[in-house]
């Protein structure tokens, strides 16, 4: 029993202190407000669209409405398995449509094929998901930051929808991740965690690094590490916003989390030794991105498991060596970390109603741990539905 308790204490002690430390660091993050750029860069807005007939037309139309010279950015829809009627409607728009077909479709393959077709006549590559909607000044703000010398920037993804309790919790989770794994990392001089979309890169660097990859799931994790190998840290632009559709269906939630958890462990194993090697070379940013962040289970699982340990220690207090108070303190550190990270706008009745869903989600995610075999060997698509929104109103909020 004592050995098991020590193992649990080592793990949950690390997880709790890591979250608390990074969340505290996030309080010291300061957004940059650069002047208008001296140079207007040419940007390729790359939108991989795999079976996204429901949303891609509206997203492409909105992507064109940027407060940026129209001759300096191209909206590029990478059409994979779209219906003929969708392709016809896209062809009417002043965008570039690149049709692709693969035996096994992945975002990496779609992006690589698109850049092969496009050539090198761009300064920056901006990657969006097929459900993303940029604020009007998105490209202009990113271009201003590039003028400061950044070569990789992750924008802030905000929820496009909060129409269900699940969507609200999904958006809340991403908001906490923004604060801890992006603001906190940047405040410490490390690399912000990439999100998979809302990302802008130096075009040639991105094309070169992506050309070395053939990731199936979680390509953003590998991309971040390969950029760090090039000495490029990702900056987090908190004031540059892209709206992202949150999962509103529990089955879709399970598929998405299964993909995420699987890629989490896959890249931990792939880069574990290299992460330690980089640490001994003094590269703490690489070690953080490859080992420290990936060695943890998802937050919801950690909170659920730690709560279970507390209950068991209270029930079996006569037979355990570590006081329940210790576990309660560790849970408290996690709670404080989340309080730092959650904006005031989330504290409302809708959140209270959504909290009752958490135990059910914990059980579902825990069971997913036993269903991960082969999950990172096949592409798991997250379908999106059409969500109407007012960009100006969302940005103002």
Structural overview:
It is a single chain. The chain has 397 residues and is of the alpha/beta class. It is built from 15 helices and 8 strands. Helix 11 packs antiparallel against helix 12. Strand 1, helix 2 and strand 2 form a beta-alpha-beta unit. The chain has one domain: Spore Coat Polysaccharide Biosynthesis Protein SpsA, Chain A, CATH 3.90.550. 51% of the residues lie in helices and 12% in strands. It is globular. Strands 3-2-1-4-7-6-8-5 form an 8-stranded mixed beta sheet, with helices on both faces. It starts with a helix and ends with a helix.
Assign the CATH architecture: Alpha-Beta Complex
For the residues shown, what is the average pLDDT? 90
> Number of domains in the coordinates?
1
Q: Largest sheet, order of strands side by side?
A: 3-2-1-4-7-6-8-5
In whole angstroms, how far apart are the ends? 51 Å
> Which spans of ≥5 residues are poorly predicted at pLDDT below 50?
none
Radius of gyration: 21 Å
Spatial shape = globular
Write the CATH fold name: Spore Coat Polysaccharide Biosynthesis Protein SpsA, Chain A
How helical, in percent, are the residues? 40-55%
Into which percentage range does the β-strand content fall?
Answer: 5-15%
The main β sheet shows up as: 8 strands, mixed
Helical stretch count? 15
Structural class: alpha/beta
Can you tell me the CATH superfamily? Spore Coat Polysaccharide Biosynthesis Protein SpsA, Chain A
CATH class: Alpha Beta
> What string gives the helices and strands in order?
HEHEHEHEEHEHEHHEHHHHHHH
What kind of oligomer do you see?
A: single chain
Strand tally is 8
């Amino acid at each position: 029993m004592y050995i098991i308790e020590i193992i649990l204490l080592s793990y949950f002690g690390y997880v709790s202190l890591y979250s608390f430390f990074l969340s505290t660091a996030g309080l010291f993050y300061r957004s940059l407000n650069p002047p208008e750029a001296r140079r207007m860069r040419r940007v390729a807005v790359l939108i991989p669209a795999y079976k996204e007939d429901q949303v891609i037309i509206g997203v492409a139309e909105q992507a064109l409405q940027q407060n940026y010279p129209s001759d300096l950015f191209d909206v590029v829809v990478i059409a994979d398995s779209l219906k003929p009627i969708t392709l016809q409607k896209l062809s009417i728009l002043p965008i570039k449509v690149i049709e692709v077909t693969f035996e096994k479709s992945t975002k990496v393959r779609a992006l690589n094929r698109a850049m092969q077709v496009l050539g090198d006549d761009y300064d920056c590559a901006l990657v969006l998901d097929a459900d993303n909607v940029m604020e009007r000044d998105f490209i202009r703000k990113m271009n201003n930051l590039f003028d400061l010398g950044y070569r990789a920037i992750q924008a802030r993804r905000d929820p496009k929808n909060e129409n269900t309790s699940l969507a609200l919790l999904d958006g809340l989770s991403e908001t906490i991740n923004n604060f801890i794994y992006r603001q906190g990392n940047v405040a410490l001089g490390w690399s912000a965690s990439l999100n998979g979309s809302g990302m802008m890169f130096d075009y040639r660097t991105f094309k070169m690094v992506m050309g070395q990859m053939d990731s199936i799931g979680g390509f953003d994790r590998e991309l971040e590490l390969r950029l760090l190998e090039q000495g490029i840290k990702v900056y987090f632009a908190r004031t540059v916003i892209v709206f992202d559709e949150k999962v509103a269906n529990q089955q879709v939630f399970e598929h998405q989390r299964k993909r995420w958890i699987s890629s989490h462990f896959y890249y931990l194993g792939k880069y574990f030794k290299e992460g330690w090697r980089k640490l001994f070379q003094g590269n703490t940013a690489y070690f953080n991105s490859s080992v420290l962040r990936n060695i943890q289970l998802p937050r919801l699982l950690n909170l659920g498991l730690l709560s279970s340990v507390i209950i068991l220690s209270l029930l079996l207090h006569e037979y355990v060596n570590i006081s329940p108070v210790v576990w309660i303190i560790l849970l408290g550190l996690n709670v404080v970390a989340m309080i730092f990270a959650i904006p005031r706008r989330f504290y409302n009745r809708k959140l209270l109603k959504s909290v009752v869903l958490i135990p059910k989600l914990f059980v579902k995610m825990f069971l997913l741990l036993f269903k991960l075999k082969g999950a990172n060997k096949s592409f798991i698509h997250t379908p999106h539905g059409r969500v109407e929104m007012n960009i100006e109103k969302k940005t103002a909020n």
